[in-house]
Amino acid sequence: MRIKIFHHIVIFLFVLIALDLFYLQIIRGGYFSRLSQSNATRLISFDGPRGRILDRNGKVVAESIKAFEVALMPQDIKDKSSVFSFVAGVFGLEAEDLRKRYFRNKLTPFSPVVVAGGISREQAIKIEESTMLYPGLLVSERYIRRYPYGSVGAHVIGYVGKRDHERIENLSDYGYAAPEMTGYSGIEEFYDQALRGQPGGREIEVNSRGQQVRLMSERDPVPGKDVVLSVDQRIQLAAQDALAGRRGAAVVIDPSNGEVLALVSAPSFDPNIFASTERRNRASVYLNDPMSPLLNRAVSAQFPPGSVFKIMVAMAGLEEKKFIPSMTVDCPGYYELGDRRFTFAHAYGVQDLFQAMAHSANEYFFHLGLLLGPEQMARYARVFGLGDKTGIDMPYELKGHIPGNNRTRSWYKGDTVNMSIGQGDVLTTPLQIVRMIATVHNEGWMPKLHILKSLDGKNTEVSRSRVSFRKPVWDTIKRSLQGVVDIGTGTASELKMDGLVTYGKTGTAQAGAGKEDHAWFAGVTRSEGRVIAYCLLLEHGGSSKNAVMAVREMLVRLKESNLL
User: Fold this and answer.
1) 233-266+299-560 homologous superfamily
2) Closest CA to 138 of 109, 170, 116, 118
3) Which residue of 171, 255, 513, 523 pairs with 438 in a disulfide if CB–CB is 3.0 to 4.6 A?
4) Taking 80 as the threshold, does the pLDDT of residue 167 lie above it?
5) Nearest-angstrom CA–CA distance, 561 and 563
6) Using N-to-C axis directions, what is the helix angle for 413-420 and 362-372, rounded to 10°?
C-alpha cells in the first residue's frame, strides 16, 4: 500500500514538472527568448544636440558643445567600492561623495548613472584605459549647454537640466537610456520641442562580462532647430546695467510690430550653473536667495501700477466725455473724502489735465475716478489688455487683476479713488504696461508681443488688434504725456535730451505697510532712426524718480552706442 502511494506521488511530481516546462517553454518561451536576447545586446543612446539660440543680430546666446562624462551601469558593477575609489582618485574627489552622487541619480539598473561630467580628454583616456578592469564603467561624449553671456538675458533664455523622475518617459526595460536634457523656464522651455534634438543610438552585442563583442547597428543623432530671437543683446545689456543689481524689470519693444528687443529681470542668475553636472549643486544658492533671482519679474510677477494707470483713467474720461482737457481741479496737497483725508508730498494748486498729468497730481485723478466709477475704469483698462495675459511666447505669464463687476467684497468711494491712481486691488505686469504705452503711441494698434523672430528659417507673423478711440483723445493723451518730460517741473523732466523725443508716465505705487514703494516709468522714445516703447519697474525702489534715472541711464547708453 505504501509503495502504491509513493508511486502516485512520483507521478504527481512528474506531472507538475511537465506542466512547469510547458509553461516556461511554450507559454512564456517568447518572453524569455527576448529577455535572453536583451541580456546579449545593449542599446546605448545619444542625445541629439539642442539647437542654438541666437539674438536678432546672429549672436549666439545658447549653444551645445561636446564634453566627456563618466557613467556607471548599475547592473554591470561587480565591486562598487573599488570603482568609486578608482574614479574618485582620477578626479581628486572623495569616494563617499561619489557614492552619494551615484545613489542620488540612480534611476533603474539599466540606465547609466553619470558621476562626473565636463571632464578633460586626458581624464577620459585614463578612465577608458581602465574599463576592462572595472565592469560597468563607461566614458562617453555628451553635449552640454553653454551660455556665453552668463546672466545677461537669463530670464529670456532659461536653462536646461536633466529630466526629473516625473518627466522621464519610456525608459527601456533593458539597455542604456541616456538622461535627456530638457528646457526649464524661458525660451528653453517654451520652444523645447523645437530645440530638442532627436536622439541617436548604437546597438552592440556584449559577452557575459558586459564587454562589447560587435557593433550591430547605429543611428546618428539629429540636431535640434535653431531659434532666432527678436532680442538685441546690446539693448539687453544696457537695460540690465540700468537696473544695477536692484530688484525689478525692464522691457523694451518695437511698438510697430511687438518685437521684444530686451526683457530683463533683476537680480539675474547664471544658467551655466544648471547646465553643468559639477556646478549644479550650487543652484541651491539661487533657490534659497530671498531676492528670488529665478523669478521673472517682467512675466511672472504682478504689481500695482500706481500713477501709470492714470493714462487709462484720462482716456476713459475723454472718450466718455466726462470732462474736457481744460477742466481744472484744485490740488492743494490733500484730498478729503468723508471723514478721511489723503495727504500728498506736493501742493500744485489749480491744475488742468496737462498740468495734472505732468505733475501726477492725485487730486485731479481722484475727481476723474469718481466721475467715471469703478466699472467704467475697469472696462477701459481691459480694453488695453490690463488684467489679462499678453500671450507672449514665454512660460508662466500672470494676468494681473482689474476689479470690476465681479467684486466679491463691499466697495466704497475710497476704493474708487484708490483705483483711479492704480492702487488698491489693481495689479498689472510690466509686459501689460509696455503693451499699453505702445498702443497709445500707435493710436490704437495693439501689438502682439513676441520674442521669437524666426524658427527654422521661418519668420514670426506679426499680429495686432485695434483699440478704437476718437482721434482727439489720442492727440490729447499724447500731448499730456509729452508734458511729463518737456515741462521743467514734470515728473520725468530728466529724460529731455538732445536728439531724442520722449514721452511717458511715472508711477509710485504703495507696496504695503513698512515696505518701500514700487517705482515705475513707461514711455516711448523716438530718434531719427528708431522708435522704442519700454517699461521699467524698480521693486521697492522708492520714488518714481529712481525709475526715471534708471531709464535715463539706459537711453544714454543706447544713444552713445548708436542703437537709438
Assistant:
1) DD-peptidase/beta-lactamase superfamily (3.40.710.10)
2) 116
3) 255
4) no
5) 5
6) 120
Specify the length of the chain in residues.
564
CB 256 within 8 A of CB 449: no
| 209 has pLDDT over 60 | no
Measured torsion, CA atoms of residues 50, 51, 54, 56, in degrees rounded to the nearest 10: -150
pLDDT at 334 over 70: yes
What is the C-alpha separation between 50 and 53, in angstroms, rounded? 9
Residues 6+ apart with CB under 8 A from 227: 51, 52, 53, 54, 187, 191, 194, 195, 452, 455
Contact 521, 504 (CB under 8 A): yes
Instruction: Dump pLDDT digits (tens) for 368-385.
Output: 999 999 999 999 999 999
Question: Does residue 164 carry a pLDDT above 70?
Answer: no
Beta strands 200-206 and 501-509, pairing class = unpaired
Return the CA Rg of the chain: 32
DSSP element (H, E) containing 235: helix 233-243
What is the arithmetic mean of pLDDT over 434-459?
95
For residue 223, is the peptide bond before it cis, meaning its omega torsion is within 30 degrees of 0? Answer: no
CB 216 within 8 A of CB 41: yes
Contact 443, 472 (CB under 8 A): no
Q: Do 303 and 505 touch, CB atoms closer than 8 A? A: no
- Per DSSP, what are the bridge partners of residue 555? none
Beta partners for 67? 142
State residue 102's pLDDT score: 80
Nearest Cα neighbor of 242 from 542, 522, 537, 504 is: 537
Short-list 384, 379, 422, 372, CA closest to 404:
379
Phi/psi of residue 452, nearest 5 degrees? -75, 130
The helix (H) or strand (E) run that includes residue 335 is strand 334-337
pLDDT tens for residues 227-281?
Answer: 999 999 999 999 999 998 899 999 999 999 999 999 999 999 999 988 776 566 6
Buried b / exposed e over 152-168, threshold 16 CB at 10 Å, is: bbbbbbbbbbeeeeeeb
Cell representation of residue 485: 518730460
Cβ atoms of 364 and 356 within 8 Å: the answer is yes
Class for the domain spanning 42-227: alpha beta
Please tell me the distance from the alpha carbon of residue 174 to that of residue 172, in angstroms, as a whole number.
5
